[in-house]
Amino acid sequence: MPFVSIGGVTLHHRYIEATGILRPIIFINSLGTDFRIWDDIVARLAGEMPMLVYDKRGQGLSDIGGGVRSIDDHADDLSALIDHFGFGKVVLCGLSVGGMVAQGLYARRSELVEALILSDTAHKIGTAESWNTRIATIERDGIEAIADGIMKVWFTPDFHQARAADLAGCRNMLTRQALPGYIGTCIAVRDADFTDSARRIAVPTLCIVGDQDGSTPPDLVRALADLIPGARFEVVRGAGHIPCIEQPDAFVTLIRDFVASLPEGKQLHG
Q: Which pLDDT belongs to residue 268?
């Protein structure tokens, strides 16, 4: 079954096995989404590397347990999930808040992390004022009230015009998220600051951003890459905040090249 109870929290997940390398890549979804945002990536990488996708606490089909107040809550769930599967070192690929969760896990249990892929994320995202305004709006009017604005930063104008059905589906995914999980994760992002810990990251790191990301713009993601010693920075053309949906081929190429550059990853290409 694709559910596991860890520390009183039921997490929805999917593990995709592969031969060739033992080290898996774990994908961590963004705020207001579930692990289906990785479907196109998983389909393209199937058989090449083991992969684990899961819904963060309070989002998708995972329950909220005792609640969400900090990135540590999400990082602890991820840590326990890694222990549950008995993984050694893993590669973490986190999008937006998922990238903050990846940074948070590295800060707490660096021995588990072989490499980081930080997509459309930062060491600090937004201001207390911007997050408090969003939280107040949602508490008063629901996620529906911010949905159209969120779609504008998630996807480019070309996506809005050419992929109306996909846009509608992603909007449904956002508006159907449970309010306690969404608001709790907003609070977690509001209060998170990984500026100092980013400077201490000592594993290979790839920072990716869509060239039209309106949520974590390229300059912000570049600032994160500049903090991390030796980090690689890449821009995905024709993409907003969720390039894994909008430009999956380009996203997969970056993952393949990065994983192949890791010592164990060289097995992927003979």
A: 40
Whether 37 has a pLDDT exceeding 90, the answer reads: yes
Q: Give the span between the Cα atoms of 209 and 188, in whole angstroms.
A: 22
Cβ atoms within 10 Å of 198's Cβ, excluding its own: 24
For 214, the token pair is 């309106």
Contact 75, 108 (CB under 8 A): yes
CA dist 92 → 127, 131, 132 (Å)? 26, 26, 29
Q: Is the dihedral of CA 133, 137, 142, 148 positive or negative?
A: negative
Residues 32, 177: contact at Cβ < 8 Å? yes
**DSSP assignments along 48-60, one per residue:** TS-EEEEPPTTST
Strand partners, 5: 10
d(CA 94, CA 236): 16
Whether the Cβ atoms of residue 85 and residue 19 lie closer than 8 Å to each other = no
* pLDDT-wise least confident of 14-23, 88-97, 145-154, 214-223: 14-23
- Can you tell me the distance from the alpha carbon of 54 to that of 92, in angstroms, rounded to the nearest whole number? 12
Alpha-carbon distances of 115 from 89, 91, 225, 264, rounded to whole Å: 9, 5, 14, 11
Q: Is a pLDDT exceeding 90 seen at residue 44?
A: yes
Q: What is the mean pLDDT of residues 202-213?
A: 98
Does residue 270 register a pLDDT over 70?
no
pLDDT at 1: 67
Model pTM? 0.95
Q: What are phi and psi of 249, to 5 degrees?
A: -65, -45
Report how far apart, in Å, the C-alpha atoms of 19 and of each of 16, 23, 48, 51, 112 are.
10, 10, 7, 11, 21
What's the sign of the alpha-carbon dihedral 68, 74, 77, 81?
positive
Chain centre distance of CA 48: 20
